[in-house]
Design a protein that fits this description.
The protein is α+β, with helices and mostly antiparallel strands. The chain has helices at 19-43, 46-67, 106-111, 138-152; strands at residues 13-15, 70-73, 77-82, 88-93, 97-103, 113-120, 127-134. A four-stranded antiparallel β-sheet has the order 1-2-3-4. Strands 5-6-7 form a three-stranded antiparallel β-sheet. A hairpin with a 5-residue loop joins strand 3 (77-82) and strand 4. The longest helix has 25 residues, at 19-43.
Length: 160
């Protein structure tokens, strides 16, 4: 479903985190809640049951927070939209990106996922991480668009 905050003009790629990534991210909260609940039932401590419910709700929130993220690549911007109860949209001009890193832990490698870390000159958010993306040519595509934007806007980067 297309967001009303993001126009469809010029969108070349639209990616979302995979469900398996969201599931793996919220599993520690469920495991911790299970341990607390087992302890609470064993020792008859009702307060700990409420704490375990809190951890279950926190895990569900993290699951939906990951799945609510959408990344759009245009020829001039990377648009990052996320949020469960409120939406936040970040429009990053591609010529501001200074480095692209692809990270894969062992478990991510086995299920074909990656995180893309973008370092930018943007003062509001200099580090952006696109989490749980299926392995694709997206990093190279971003890099190519960054180079084109820098040439088109005549942006010269100086390293310190």
């Amino acid at each position: 479903m297309q967001s009303p905050l993001v126009t469809t003009d010029g969108i070349e790629a639209q990616v979302k985190p995979e469900k398996i990534y969201a599931t793996v991210i919220f599993m520690p909260q469920f495991f911790f809640a299970f341990l607390i609940a087992a302890f609470a039932i064993n020792f008859n401590i009702s307060l700990l049951l409420f704490i375990s419910v809190f951890f279950v709700l926190l895990g569900i929130y993290k699951y939906f927070l990951v799945l609510s993220s959408t990344y759009y690549l245009t020829d001039q911007q990377l648009i990052i939209e996320k949020g469960v109860f409120t939406r936040r949209v970040n429009y990053l001009e591609l010529y501001r990106i200074k480095d692209i890193l692809v990270n894969q832990s062992f478990w991510m490698k086995t299920i074909g996922l990656m995180n893309i870390t973008l370092l930018s000159f943007d003062s509001s958010e200099s580090l952006l991480i696109l989490k749980g993306i299926k392995i694709s040519a997206l990093p190279q595509s971003i890099r190519n668009h960054v180079q084109e934007c820098r040439q088109r806007n005549k942006v010269l980067t100086v390293d310190n």
